[in-house]
Structures are given as structure tokens and as C-alpha cells.
Design a protein that fits this description.
61% helix, globular
Length: 135
């Protein structure tokens, strides 16, 4: 069972771990569903990106609360000065891939469930590394 209390959601939303669990539920639904695999994969990608955003917000609240007022791109660019550069690059690469997958264009195919599962593993690792108290 996922621990939903580990990363609090201060704005009244779901915690990063709850978002991760919801994405997992979309990728592997327990029963029959009316949603197509493409729709479920895109919805899971949106939840994964939200989980990354929530974790980055929580990270900056513990390290430098003033950074929570900065734009998302600024917070990601500054991350390389507070964590290993390779971790910051991985964060940006996963976030960028998820952002592209979240945008619906009629001329593009949705992300495949396999792609989103791979991103799910990446996000799980990033959340573990940057969770409050582990940095």
C-alpha cells in the first residue's frame, strides 16, 4: 500500500504519492473499463507530471521557500545547484516528456501505456530521491 502521508499537499490537492498511485491504477485497472488504453495513458501522464510538480514544490518549501514563488522552469533550472546535475537533468527530461505527452493534438498518437509505465518508474525514483527529508 502506498503511504499517502509522506508528501503533504498543502493546497488541498492530492499528495505526490496519491497521484502516483492513481496513475498506477489507470495504467493497470483492476477490472473492465470504458476508457481506451491511449486515454488512460495520457491521463496517467498528467497525474505523473502533477506528482513531479508537487514534489518539486515540497522540495523548494524545505530548501528555500522563496523559490516556491518562482516559475516552474526557473525552479527546475535552479535545481542543478542543489542536487546532483545528473538528477536535475533526469528531472527535466522526465518532466519534459510528460509535458509533451499531456498535450492532445489530433495529428499525434497518445503515449503508449508502456511509455507511461517507464515514466512511472522514473517518477517513482525521482520522488523517492527528492521527497522532503531525503535530500
Amino acid at each position: 500500500m502506498t503511504d499517502h502521508t509522506r508528501s503533504p499537499a498543502p493546497r488541498g490537492g492530492l499528495s505526490a504519492n496519491a497521484l502516483l498511485a492513481a496513475a498506477d491504477h489507470l495504467l493497470d485497472p483492476p477490472g473492465a473499463t470504458t476508457l481506451t488504453p491511449g486515454v488512460r495513458a495520457r491521463a496517467a501522464a498528467i497525474l505523473l507530471r502533477l506528482a513531479l510538480d508537487e514534489t518539486l514544490d515540497a522540495y523548494w518549501r524545505t530548501i528555500s521557500p522563496r523559490m516556491t514563488r518562482a516559475t516552474g522552469r526557473t525552479r527546475m533550472l535552479c535545481l542543478q545547484w542543489y542536487v546532483a546535475p545528473s538528477l536535475a537533468r533526469q528531472w527535466y527530461a522526465v518532466w519534459s516528456a510528460l509535458s509533451a505527452a499531456c498535450h492532445h493534438h489530433t495529428y499525434e498518437l497518445p503515449p503508449t501505456p508502456a511509455e507511461v509505465r517507464a515514466w512511472h518508474q522514473d517518477v517513482s525514483e525521482l520522488l523517492r530521491v527528492l521527497a522532503p527529508g531525503s535530500a
